[in-house]
Amino acid sequence: MDVEKVFHMTGGVGKTSYAKNSSLQKKACDKVKHIILEAVEEVYLATTPKSIGIADLGCSSGPNTLSIIKDIFQAIQSISHKIMMHRRHHPHHLISDEFRVYLNDLPTNDFNSIFKALPEFHRLLRQDKNKDNNDGLIPSIFMGGYPGSFYGRLFPNSSLHFVHSSYSLHWLSRVPPALYDKEGNSLNKGCVYISESSPEVVQKAYLNQFQQDFSLFLRSRSEELVVDGRMVLIFLGRRGTEHVDKGNSFFWQILSRSFAILVSQGGIEQEKLDSYDVHFYAPSREEVEEEVRKQESIKLERLDTVEMDTIEQGIESYGITVAKAVRAIQESMISSHFGEKILDALFDNFARLLDDEVVKEDIKPITFVLVLRKI
Prior knowledge:
The chain is α/β, with parallel strands linked by helices. It is built from eleven helices and seven strands.
């Protein structure tokens, strides 16, 4: 399956869309927003550009996309205002009056939903500006969609000051080809990701693909960032060397079990399940640090581990909430491989199985937050 041609979050604003089912991602981003804004201020003070370039890689669609851009814009405006108030003492400082915002995702992403939201986004910025200041000066904001894989070059040399990527880098550029033998037979039968029954070659295949992809990502961004530019990368990870735990890998175990139920009921064929693997990898802290060390022009300034709560207070159960989120993310890939008819039954199974497991034991997925600087 060609990931670049098929994979995307479910678009639109329907009940199964990513826009309606990304509250878990929003909660996580809000928890680490202070780290993002600190990095934004640092890069602004270090570079003080007249025209600042900002890229959101893996922007998807829905309210989360423009929410963080709004926060970044306001953070820069706040520090700009402080500099302007002391400009007599700091004549070398320039005030940014132009923002270049590059929204990137795969070509299949629902960019139209983002573009439709832009008029309201600009209206709210003007409204907030008028409330906070009386000078009436609103910087120009130039926003555009840049479709393509971030595993490779996207932008001109030294054109970016700040790169943000949230919950995207755990998605690999492809399903690791080493998961299949020379005849095309699966080496990870019955499982969609690394499991307790997976042979060691499966773990190595996923690790090798992550190393190739993350290394290429870092090299590409190094070319595109200005010196002292910053990146804040937020993605799923794991605590230690073990790939199978009660963290992010557990959700894929639940999905494999949900598929197995459909196989037992005759809803899908076993061979069809055996040939389906996810293009996902949750690296360890050591694996992340090792790839960064290989990049001479990128320095790791900060690496935080954030644990998200599993129990949500609301009308729906935790299992249903997570099932909707996973469906909004995986629907395009599953539909392409199995067809759309299985989706409702599959994720009903997923929600029920996950709720059963949460009662027995806490599931503690973790997120890595990296702050990187171009040197």
